[in-house]
Structures are given as C-alpha cells and as structure tokens.
Amino acid sequence: MGLSLTDKEAIILEHEADPQRILNILIAIQYASEEGYIDEATAKLVADRLKLSEARVYELLSFYAILKTEPQAKYVLKICNSTPCLYTGGAMLAEVLETILEVPVDQATPDGLFMYHSIPCIGACDQGPVIKIKDTVFADLTEEKVYRLIEDLRSGCYQEL
C-alpha cells in the first residue's frame, strides 16, 4: 500500500510548503513511501502545493541521485564510498554484491528483492566498510558477512526492514 495523499500533504506541511525546502520534501516523501520512489502523481502534487512548475520538480528528481523516479527493490543496499570506508575495504562491497546478486550497481535483481548503489557517506566512518538498508547500518563488513547478510535477508531474518 502506498503513501496516501493525506500523508504526502502532511509531509509537505511539515516543511511549511516552502519551495526552498523542496529537496527535503521529496526525500521525506520518498523515504516514507513503501515504493521508495517519487511517482508522477506525487511530483505533480509537490509542484502544485509548492507553486512550482512540474519541470522544476523533475529537474531536481533527475539531478539528485538519491531521488528515484522508478520503483526500487525491496532491499536497497547503500554502500558507503567515502574515503575512510574505501580504505577499510569498501571497494570490495560492490564487487561481492555484484557476484552474489548477479546484477550490476543500480539494477534490481530479477526477483525484485535487491538493488545496491554507492552513496557519498553514511555517517559511520569509524565502522567501515558499511552497508545501510533504510535506517539500519551493517558495519565492519567482510566478504563472509556480506554473504551472510544476503542469505539472512532472503530468508526473512530482518522483518523490520
């Protein structure tokens, strides 16, 4: 079930329907939605409520990598690519995920369960390398721990995600 119109409007109002806060609004709506992306109707709603053109909303949607305009996988694994994480083995994460999941970065697995991509910083530099799924950070990862994490996710061990 998707985010209701009332819920989307509440998020817009939480940000005082301020056009200067459009990025925060789009991110908040995307994060709150089960689908994990901004659909056409939502983009139109945001444009309307903030008194902006739809073109301006789509400009932001296409510019910021964090914003998605297509459905995402059930588990979106965010790999930290900050310098500290790279020094502690972060580069290995994408390679291992590509091997395990048999898909390249930014592509969902055929079953729709997994997708992974790199982001600039997760805020857990002292625990790298890390993967973040929603609000949960999986830290000090090794190749073995990544394999175990994927197995656990497939078997439903993390119902809260």
TrEMBL record:
InterPro entries: NuoE-like (IPR002023), NuoE_dom (IPR042128), NuoE_N (IPR041921), Thioredoxin-like_sf (IPR036249). Binds 1 [2Fe-2S] cluster. SUPFAM superfamilies: Thioredoxin-like (SSF52833). [2Fe-2S] cluster binds at residues 80, 85, 121, 125. Keywords: 2Fe-2S, Iron, Iron-sulfur, Metal-binding. One of its GO terms (molecular function) is 2 iron, 2 sulfur cluster binding. Its cofactor is [2Fe-2S] cluster. It holds the Pfam family 2Fe-2S_thioredx. The keyword Metal-binding applies. PANTHER family: NADH DEHYDROGENASE [UBIQUINONE] FLAVOPROTEIN 2, MITOCHONDRIAL (PTHR10371:SF3), NADH DEHYDROGENASE UBIQUINONE FLAVOPROTEIN 2, MITOCHONDRIAL (PTHR10371). Belongs to the complex I 24 kDa subunit family. This is Formate dehydrogenase. It comes from Enterococcus termitis.
